[in-house]
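Per reviewer request, we include the raw input and output of the structure prediction for the construct analysed in the revised manuscript.
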Amino acid sequence: FDVRFFVLDRRGRYAGVALYGAAESRFAVCDENGAREEPLEGLLEGAPRG
């Protein structure tokens, strides 16, 4: 269940979310502040069962 969503609106605001959060989950961003990595926010805690 490595589902990730990346969202960008018309004003340039962005977000990255993952179905399950993990400390190492990040996504790349480049804007007027330069290139960097931002953390993905987890929608659900823990890990998928299975």
